C-alpha cells in the first residue's frame, strides 16, 4: 500500500483484520489465486465487499498482506555455525519444511507469471526480505572464514531453496529436515567452503 492509499483509506484493525486475512488464505487454498475474488473473500469473512475495497484497493494487495502472515522470522539465525544457521533458517517457522507457506506458494505460483502487480509486490515484500536474511547468514560465515572469501553470495543464497522447491513441485517429494540437511552437507557446504591448496600450489608460492 502506498502512503497516499494509507492516508485516505480507513484501516480495519486488530482481530477483524486478521479474520479477513485468514479468510483470504482459506479461499486461496481452496481455489488458488486465479479464481480468488473479493466477493468470495467477503463471503468467507462475513464482510461486505465495500469494506474490503476501503482497506485493500486490489486482489493483489489483499493476497500479499495475507501471505505475509506466513513470512517467517524477520531476523536470521546467528548460532556461530554456518551449517547450523542454514538448518535453523530452513527448518523453522516460515522455512522450507513449513507446510503453510509451501501450500500458499503452490496456490499463487501461476500468478507470478500472469499478474504483474502481484508478482512485483510478492517479490518485493515476501521474497526479497527472505533473500536478505539468507544473505546475512552467508556474510557472517564469510567473515568467520567458514566459506570462501571470493564466493558470489548473491548467486548461491537462493540455491538451497531452489533445490528444495524443485524436489517438492516437480518431483513430488516432501521437504523434511533430513532432506534439507543432506542438501546442506552434500551440496551447499562443499560448494562454499574454502578451496584446499594443492601441493603444487604450495610449492609455487614457497
How would you portray this structure in words?
The chain is mainly alpha-helical. It has helices at residues 3-8, 14-35, 38-45, 49-55, 59-67, 82-91, 99-108, 111-114, 116-144, 153-156, 159-169, 177-192, 199-205. Helix 2 crosses helix 7 (99-108), helix 5 (59-67) packs parallel to helix 9 (116-144) and helix 11 (159-169) runs antiparallel to helix 12. The chain is elongated. The model is unreliable at 1-10 (pLDDT under 50).
Q: Which class best fits the helix and strand makeup? A: mainly alpha
- The assigned CATH architecture of the largest domain is Orthogonal Bundle
Helix-strand pattern: HHHHHHHHHHHHH
**Computed CA radius of gyration, to the nearest angstrom:** 21 Å
Care to count the β-strands? Answer: 0
pLDDT < 50 runs, ≥5 residues: 1-10
Percent of sequence in beta strands: under 5%
As a percent range, the share of helical residues equals 55-70%
Shape: elongated
CATH class of the largest domain: Mainly Alpha
Count of helical stretches: 13
Arithmetic mean of pLDDT: 87
According to CATH, what is the topology of the largest domain? Tetracycline Repressor, domain 2
Largest sheet: none
Number of domains: 2
Terminal residue distance = 61 Å
Instruction: Find the CATH superfamily of the largest domain.
Output: Tetracycline Repressor, domain 2
Domain HTH tetR-type: 14-74
InterPro entries: DNA-bd_HTH_TetR-type_CS (IPR023772), Homeodomain-like_sf (IPR009057), HTH-type_TetR-like_transc_reg (IPR050109), HTH_TetR (IPR001647), Tet_transcr_reg_TetR-rel_C_sf (IPR036271), TetR_C (IPR011075)
Keywords: DNA-binding, Transcription, Transcription regulation
Pfam families: TetR_C_11, TetR_N
Amino acid at each position: 500500500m502506498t502512503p497516499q492509499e494509507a492516508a485516505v483509506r480507513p484501516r480495519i484493525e486488530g482481530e477483524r483484520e486478521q479474520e479477513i486475512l485468514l479468510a483470504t488464505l482459506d479461499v486461496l487454498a481452496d481455489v488458488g489465486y486465479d479464481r480468488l475474488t473479493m466477493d468470495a473473500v467477503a463471503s468467507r469473512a462475513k464482510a461486505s465487499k465495500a469494506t474490503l475495497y476501503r482497506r485493500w484497493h486490489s486482489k493483489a494487495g489483499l493476497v500479499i498482506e495475507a501471505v505475509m502472515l506466513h513470512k517467517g522470522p524477520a531476523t536470521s539465525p546467528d548460532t556461530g555455525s554456518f551449517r547450523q544457521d542454514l538448518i535453523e533458517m530452513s527448518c523453522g517457522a516460515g522455512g522450507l519444511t513449513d507446510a503453510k507457506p509451501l501450500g500458499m506458494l503452490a496456490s499463487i505460483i501461476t500468478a507470478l507469471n500472469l499478474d504483474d502487480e502481484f508478482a512485483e509486490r510478492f517479490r518485493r515484500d515476501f521474497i526479497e526480505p527472505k533473500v536478505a536474511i539468507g544473505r546475512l547468514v552467508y556474510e557472517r560465515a564469510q567473515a568467520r572464514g567458514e566459506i570462501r572469501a571470493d564466493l558470489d553470495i548473491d548467486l548461491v543464497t537462493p540455491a538451497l531453496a531452489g533445490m528444495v522447491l524443485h524436489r517438492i513441485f516437480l518431483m513430488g517429494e516432501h521437504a523434511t529436515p533430513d532432506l534439507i540437511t543432506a542438501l546442506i552437507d552434500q551440496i551447499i557446504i562443499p560448494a562454499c567452503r574454502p578451496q584446499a591448496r594443492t601441493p603444487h600450489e604450495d610449492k609455487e608460492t614457497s
